[in-house]
Amino acid sequence: MSISYKDAGVNKEEGYKAVDLMKKAVSKTHNKCVLNGLGSFGAMYEMGQYKNPVLVSGTDGVGTKLEVAFKMGVYNTVGIDAVAMCVNDILCHGAKPMFFLDYMACGKLEAEKAAQLVSGVAEGCLQSGAALVGGETAEMPGFYKDGDYDIAGFSVGVVEKDEIINGSTVEDGDVIIALPSSGVHSNGFSLVRKLITDFDEELNGKKIGEVLLEPTKIYVKPILALLEKFTVKGMAHITGGGLPENLPRTIGEGYHPVVEKSKIKVLEIFKHLQSKGVPENEMYGTFNMGVGFVLVVAESDKDAVISELKTLGEEAYEIGYIKKGDKELCLI
Question: d(Cα 216, Cα 180) in Å, to the nearest integer?
Fold first, then answer.
């Protein structure tokens, strides 16, 4: 008796087909800094001219938002989330994303579905200016159920050492500016899935599953353009833990952020989730509540920064200020 890898549940031919389907989307993300294509053992990326470059890296996944995607039969958006979660994080230090790699695992590989997932990754890379230089697709029968996929990613960016943003210059009286989120983004879905069991339920004329699957907004291009004109003292990507967990991370010692809840433009999806019985403090400690990214700037720059962001397509607005004290967020 003979036995093959396919008999064990791994279809190599389906893997080759998946790679072929992915290549076109991946190649669109490449630029002159990418020195080799898919198929090499390692990706090569030329950094270009920097005086004193510092590499900034980040890795993350999409989490249980994937279950919503698969129940809705939508495979081409969660890849954007995987990219966004990484590039928005490294952006917080003023770094420009250079390249991205993805990791996808499944129980049984279906080439078309895998290619749709990676097409989302490629779209996220295009939105952030990062090159998709490689990745890994792991077919793991018996470990993942057939039909299940997991996706995560890793990104590297670069910033001049003397331009790193780390909150060290934040001071009393600085202003906190919010950039709106596109929705729930990619955090809190374990709670969402407890609250929402019917993804075909309607919310403002759309299936709530469609609302929940709105991809995480990528802030890279407008923020990098802003940094060419203005000094930004601190930046935070509002992910798991919401404003209370993430905003203090961008503040130096001896100061703390104060956010006025009445100024936050809470999205309808969060009002709906809260109506299911979630206390307000739990909402703010789990979800972004409509604030996807935050900047800290000098009070004297506030109006000009908000105006510039609007010209860049971001409806930014003021939500708070910095005071002396411990680093914990004060929600008033």
Answer: 11
Q: Do 268 and 195 share a structural domain?
A: yes
Q: How many domains does the chain have?
A: 2
- Please state whether the predicted TM-score (pTM) of the whole model is above 0.90: yes
Token look-up 């009002």 returns 271
Q: What band does 276 get if pLDDT is binned at 50, 70 and 90? A: very high
Q: Based on the domain organization, do 205 and 148 belong to the same domain?
A: no
Q: What is the pLDDT of residues 174-212, one digit of tens each?
A: 999 999 999 999 999 999 999 999 999 999 999 999 999
Q: Which residue range is the domain that position 220 belongs to?
A: 174-331
In a domain, 249, yes or no: yes
Whether residue 9 contacts residue 3, with contact meaning beta carbons closer than 8 Å, is answered with no
The answer on 215 and 135 residing in a single domain is: no
Which residue, 160, 188, 207, sits at the end of a domain? Answer: 160
Task: Identify the helix (H) or strand (E) that includes residue 297.
Answer: strand 291-297
Q: Do 327 and 190 sit in the same domain of this protein?
A: yes
Sheet with 131-139, strands from edge to edge, namely: 53-61, 149-160, 96-106, 131-139
Please give the C-alpha separations between residue 71 and each of 6, 83, 96, 193, 294, in angstroms, as whole numbers.
27, 22, 35, 11, 32
DSSP conformation class of 71? H
pLDDT at 291: 98
